[in-house]
């Protein structure tokens, strides 16, 4: 079967298609394979040619994806944690939808710090603010666009000593850029010692790894406010980690677009 025809999770499957014609062609292919290997499906559980479908806690509709109502209600009703285990449960629930939240790791840091063994459990103002902000962001029905081959694509990245993040954007029919997915990550103790330009490269590299299935084989722009990135890439003598990162960058078809920074970024 061709790649991308069907998405399977346990005993559930979904066949994505851009229109009815493609949907019927893919359905035929799936049914032929199922028949060949003796796989049976209950007709009463099947839904065909739906414009809106709920799958794995997400609602997919008209080229967009968002958390299901059931999941957002679960987030909204989650009680204020009083134990580490409850914090872990909340982070597990919200973390499943972290692609919808810009800078998720940085926002969640006061909560995730509570799960470290060497930290006492003290749920104070910083933790409450993080808890309420994550609930608010997820219950406001965040929406992402579904990635489409051939569309104008941009990758925006940013980094600091506390963490780094990125957003993958695509131009829609309205001519505007819409988010496809967000990613963020706290810096490790070792990464906190990186220079500003090393952090910028780290942000780009990890964003490329995260969005690899979207970006590999497609031309895209990397938008950043740190001119040091390009200067680093042009250096002949690179430190080991950056030299390794440049090899990964060579896999992709991209161009760097530099914008005037809101802050200075020095090498």
Automatic annotation (TrEMBL):
Keywords of the record: Endonuclease, Hydrolase, Multifunctional enzyme, Nuclease, Nucleotidyltransferase, RNA-directed DNA polymerase, Transferase
Organism superkingdom: Eukaryota
Alphabetized PROSITE patterns for the sequence: RT_POL
MF terms in GO: endonuclease activity; RNA-directed DNA polymerase activity
CDD domains on file: RNase_HI_RT_Ty3
Gene3D superfamilies linked to this entry: 3.30.70.270
Database matches in InterPro entries: DNA/RNA_pol_sf, Retrovirus_Pol_polyprotein, Rev_trsase/Diguanyl_cyclase, RT_dom, RT_RNaseH_2
Stretches assigned to coiled coil: none
Protein name per UniProt: Retrovirus-related Pol polyprotein from transposon 17.6
Native source organism of the sequence: Trichonephila inaurata madagascariensis
